[in-house]
Design brief:
This protein has 161 residues and is mostly helical. It has 6 helices and no strands.
Length: 161
């Protein structure tokens, strides 16, 4: 089932088209637009995670929810980390310590992990951020599979020629 889903996703990336605007012809959809949109969403989610962490620490401590308070404290640096990773600058610290954030599969798995942590904060913002991050992580992992298949097909066609 996963194989058919990833196959249809990779073929839809390759064959999808966007409606033409005034003066444009019907051009093939560029998968980089999807990737840029996902990066923008995750950059905003990184900021939202940091804000959520700040605003959820005190209520969790007040209700003696130690687990929620610890997760809220973790969300602050994780949100900053996600935002910096999505800016794609040359960050020596990120390059050395978090190289998985520069691959589709690494980012996808990390976003799913952080999204599940967000669900443990038990706040509306936590549920929203968690759902968006999990969905973004799944789409990013599907992107990784599509890129892998594309590279594998290109390698097979170049070696077979």
């Amino acid at each position: 089932m996963l194989n058919s889903l990833t196959q249809s996703f990779s073929s839809s990336i390759a064959t999808a088209s966007i409606p033409p605007t005034a003066g444009e012809s019907n051009a093939a959809f560029d998968s980089t637009k999807i990737a840029k949109t996902l990066r923008l969403i995750c950059g905003c989610m990184g900021i939202a995670l940091s804000i959520m962490g700040v605003f959820c620490v005190i209520p969790n401590i007040a209700t003696v929810d130690i687990t929620g308070a610890v997760i809220s404290l973790y969300m602050i640096p994780i949100g900053v980390l996600i935002t910096l990773a999505e800016l794609r600058g040359s960050h020596g610290f990120l390059d050395n310590h978090f190289p998985f954030l520069y691959t589709y599969s690494g980012r996808g798995a990390f976003y799913i992990f952080v999204g599940t942590l967000c669900l443990g904060v038990f706040s509306i913002l936590g549920y929203v951020c968690g759902a968006i991050l999990i969905l973004n992580g799944i789409i990013t992992l599907m992107f990784a599979i599509a890129k892998y298949r594309e590279a594998k097909a290109a390698a097979a066609s170049s070696s077979g020629s």
